[in-house]
C-alpha cells in the first residue's frame, strides 16, 4: 500500500537529485533551499526504510534501491503529467462518417468520391462497410451508418429512409475477352449453352435479370453460380466460358481494362438507379454533406 506520507515533492526532489547528482543543483532547479531539499530526501528515505543515495563521495550516487525507485518514480510522474494534460486539454474527437457501400458502387463511384473527399477533408475518418443491400439499409435505419451508397432500398424496406438518385446503371452480361459469343451475331437462346452466373434471389437485381431471361426464351434458367462478389465472379469468368449478369459498376474497371467484355443486348431497361440513401428526418452533418457533394461530382459520366 502506498504510504499516506508520500508527496509529489518527495518524488520530484528525488528525481532531480538523481538526474543532477548534486543536492545543491537539485535545490536550485526546484527553487527551494538546500536544507529543504535535504530534509525532503531524508523524509523519503524514512518512508521507504532504505537509503537511496550513496553519500560517500563528492557526488550523490544512486544505491541499488535508488536505481529501482528512479525507474518507477520517473514513469509515475510521466503518467501523472500525461493524465493532467489530457484532462486539461482533451484531444479533439476526430470526425467520422460511417458509410455502407454496396457492390455496384464499390469499384468506381465510392472510391473516386472518397479520394476527392479526402483532398478537402483530410481530418475526417471515412469508415467504410460493405455487405448486402438489406443489411446495410437496416444498419442505416438503426443509426449505425450515416449513409448507404449504391442501389435503392428493396421494396418494403424503405420505411424511414430517403433515396437520392445519382444515375441509372445497367445490368450487363459479362464474359472474358476471348469468349466465343463475342465478335459474331448470336441469339439469346445461345446463353443456354454456357454456364450462367446470376444474382442470388436476395439481390435487388435478381428479379429483373430472371424476368429478362424469361422474356428472351430462357423460361427456367438453371445457373451454375449465384453471386454478386467481384473477387469470385471475376476469377470464374476469366477462367471459363461463364456468362455473368451483374451491375456494370461492379466490373467497370475490368471492362475498361479489357479483361472482361460486355455481351451486347437490346434492353437498356435491364438495370436500376444508383444513388445515396439517408435516414428521414436527420439532416446530414457538414462532413456527410461534403461527402454527398463529392459523390454527386464523381457520378458525372456514370450511367444516365
TrEMBL record:
<dbReference type="GO" id="GO:0005829">
    <property type="term" value="C:cytosol"/>
</dbReference>
<dbReference type="InterPro" id="IPR005119">
    <property type="entry name" value="LysR_subst-bd"/>
</dbReference>
<comment type="similarity">
    <text>Belongs to the LysR transcriptional regulatory family.</text>
</comment>
<dbReference type="InterPro" id="IPR036388">
    <property type="entry name" value="WH-like_DNA-bd_sf"/>
</dbReference>
<dbReference type="Pfam" id="PF03466">
    <property type="entry name" value="LysR_substrate"/>
</dbReference>
<protein>
    <submittedName>
        <fullName>Transcriptional regulator</fullName>
    </submittedName>
</protein>
<keyword id="KW-0238">DNA-binding</keyword>
<dbReference type="GO" id="GO:0003700">
    <property type="term" value="F:DNA-binding transcription factor activity"/>
</dbReference>
<dbReference type="InterPro" id="IPR050950">
    <property type="entry name" value="HTH-type_LysR_regulators"/>
</dbReference>
<dbReference type="InterPro" id="IPR000847">
    <property type="entry name" value="LysR_HTH_N"/>
</dbReference>
<dbReference type="GO" id="GO:0003677">
    <property type="term" value="F:DNA binding"/>
</dbReference>
<keyword id="KW-0805">Transcription regulation</keyword>
<dbReference type="InterPro" id="IPR036390">
    <property type="entry name" value="WH_DNA-bd_sf"/>
</dbReference>
<dbReference type="Pfam" id="PF00126">
    <property type="entry name" value="HTH_1"/>
</dbReference>
<feature type="domain" description="HTH lysR-type">
    <location>
        <begin position="6"/>
        <end position="63"/>
    </location>
</feature>
<keyword id="KW-0804">Transcription</keyword>
